[in-house]
Design a protein that fits this description.
The protein is mainly alpha-helical and 102 residues long. It has a domain at 3-41: Orthogonal Bundle (Histone, subunit A). The chain has 4 helices and 2 strands; from the N terminus they run ααααββ. Strand 1 (87-88) and strand 2 (91-92) form a beta hairpin.
Length: 102
């Protein structure tokens, strides 16, 4: 696998401007991480327990996990907009996070 190419693709998707040196460093780190995970394939699992043999840490009742959806009175637009640091009409305004991404 071409790690440098993968880092370049990821940097482009994340709109990061990495120098060639930074790309080399990141590519090497990614290669080492993937190699570490690949080495787990060599771990002998003959003494491992199946999931059915392991006692769960927590137990949940079905009632606790699944509850009825109950419609409640929502806040009015005016009440919601009181918490907006900046708004335009009934919309929240937020600062631009990304530059031109085209």
């Amino acid at each position: 696998m071409n790690w440098l190419e993968e880092i370049s693709k990821a940097a482009a998707l994340a709109a990061l401007d990495l120098s060639p040196e930074q790309k080399e460093i990141q590519a090497e780190q990614l290669r080492r991480i993937v190699d570490a995970f690949a080495s787990l394939q060599d771990v002998a699992l003959t003494r491992a327990h199946s999931a059915e043999d392991v006692e769960p840490l927590y137990t949940f009742s079905e009632e606790a996990l699944l509850r009825d959806d109950i419609a409640e009175n929502p806040l009015s637009i005016e009440d919601l907009m009181q918490n907006a640091p900046d708004s335009e009409g009934d919309l929240f305004r937020i600062p631009q996070l990304l530059g031109d991404v085209s």
